[in-house]
Amino acid sequence: MRRLHGRWSALAERVDGATPADRDQSVDALRALAILGVVLGHWLVTALTGSEGGLRGTSPLAHMPWLAPLSWVLQTLAVFFLVGGHVAAQGYVSARARGVSYRSWAGQRLGRLFRPVAAVLVLWGVVAGGLLLGGTELDTVRTLLRLVWSPLWFLLVFAALTAATPLVVRLSPLWPAAVVAGVDVWRFGFGGPEWIGWVNVAAGWLVPYTLGAAWARGAFGRRRPALLLLGGGAASAAALVLWGGYPASMVGVPGAAVSNLNPPTLAAVAFGLAQCGLALLLREPLARAMRRPRTWAKVALLNLSAMTVFLWHQTAMMAVTALGLLVAPDLPGLHTVPGSAGWLAARVLWFPVFAAALAVCWAAFRVYEQPRSARARRAARTGPAPQVPRPLRARGEETARA
What we know:
Blueprint (H helix, E strand, L loop, with lengths): L1 H17 L6 H21 L1 E5 L2 E5 L1 H4 L4 H7 L2 H21 L4 H32 L4 H12 L2 H12 L1 H4 L5 H16 L9 H18 L6 H21 L22 H16 L1 H7 L3 H12 L1 H22 L13 H25 L6 H9 L22
Antiparallel strand pairs: 1-2
Helix pairs in contact: 1-15, 2-4, 2-5, 2-14, 2-15, 2-16, 5-11, 5-13, 6-7, 6-8, 6-16, 10-11, 11-13, 12-13, 16-17
């Protein structure tokens, strides 16, 4: 244990020493918090209950509506898009100043997003085929695939906004927010078609993305704008939930007539504004925390594996759930119906097991998140000494992961 502690301390010092002095470490810290929010949120509000012949998906939010406030803490997608817009805007301006073409800039960024996806699609294509050939019910396979592939919508929207960065980098967030409001009024107030709500998939997440671009331009150098975002967004979200008929939960609930997230509603956008305001206010405390080498090393290494963690955390949870069936078909917090506080307590106790399974996935698949040149160097390296991750050595594009 002492030897492991010493190796970790040495690695933390290496990471800290390789970090440029002008790097805004609070950006990495915000992304790390957003990642943890997504992972813990999915592990908490996504449940697979055992049934005859397979597994069925459900959510404790459907059985315990009083858990809705948890979604206010763990639904952190707006922070993802805020940081993504900030980094993309900075990276694009920097690339233009260096004479890098748009095609090269966009290709590099989008490649970082989609290279790790191929491994997920291939593995689960094989697993799904094997399950069906082995006699697993189609509904069970469909449930598992939905949990694996549902996060991919985030990547598609994020990739589209990234590609459109030169067009939206100076767009005011008021415009996409007005589109979301108009769509909701048409959809809920005048009985418009349900499909019109999907316009908000782009418009809704464009709001925090353009806020991130404004941040890159220096719009939040003072605390007052961030305080206005926090206060105004929170008040608007509360009013829309209390008097506008929007659900209290900021994530989808199975069986609910309306979801705030799929597609995003005006309530979700208002909530996202409050989240962005809070995130911007946390920059200074987070920057101070990142001055501690060990804390910064954890955040930096998580950021370097952000896509791997994002893509495989549901697989880790499902693997533990499936393997648990071999032990007993009704393990509390794993296979039982999430309808009580006891289930919630038992579920939290499973988190370390989920984390261990995710660590296995990380060890197996993080290589797909590394650039090809880094993978080639890793394959050729024979020395056992810990290496400093290369993305920490450069400025600008190194924060492109989301």
